[in-house]
Amino acid sequence: MRQAGKFSRGQARGVPVWRHPLTCTKFPLRNQRGVTYVVLMFSLFLIGLSLSVAAKQWKMVVQRDKEADLLAKGIEIQNALALYSATTKAGRVMPGEFYPQSLADLVKPPKPFLRKVYPDPITGGEWDYIRAPTGGIMGVRSRSKATPIKEKGFPPEIRHFEGLSRYQDWIFQHPSPSAPQQPLGGVPPQPGQPANPAAPAPASP
């Protein structure tokens, strides 16, 4: 019985040359290489997709940490500005607020109002300073125009941040727009008196 396979013309000369049946098909190696290439490309695509998703998640984690640091440092600076103003104008009859010329003034001994001069947590650089009409720094904000992750649920002293679409719009200042508004004259109303001096008092029953 003839063995499976084919012999070349050398068989006619008494020299059999055996060939494997798979090598007798047309372009077998080319087909195998094509399948291997497709599998390799698909594997590379899956690896690239996984790395892309992981990079986005890591970027989100880093941004969230920087954002939380921005809120913490910003509120600390805002409170320091308020304390500086209240301490400076204590015992004075001049109205209005008092502000430092730089953040370095807030860390001067013997009674510093701020632990240290922090950089902008988002950019790592210098803050964008908000200058008061009378001079001095009344607030700070980040120079970043990126979109924040946090949209609501802010602390009471900065609840006006809700709805703002850029970090640059988060202004930590004194007085804060979220702070309770003082009545005219700066004197709280007495019990039984209206908050607005111009408003008539309620009639007695």
Task: Offer a concise description of the structure.
With 205 residues, the protein is an alpha+beta fold.
Describe what you observe in this structure.
The chain is α+β, with helices and mostly antiparallel strands. The chain has one helix at residues 28-88, and strands at 6-7, 18-19, 128-131, 137-141, 171-173. The relative contact order is 0.10.
**Roughly what percent helix?**
25-40%
Radius of gyration: 37 Å
N-to-C SSE string, H for helix and E for strand: EEHEEE
Count of helical regions: 1
Global outline: elongated
The termini sit apart by 125 Å
Largest sheet at a glance?
A: 3 strands, antiparallel
Average pLDDT across residues? 80
Outline the fold blueprint.
Blueprint: E1 6-7, E2 18-19, H1 28-88, E3 128-131, E4 137-141, E5 171-173
Antiparallel strand pairs: 1-2, 3-4, 4-5
Characteristics:
single chain, 205 residues, alpha+beta, 3-stranded antiparallel β-sheet, two-stranded antiparallel ribbon, 1 helix, 30% helix, disordered C terminus
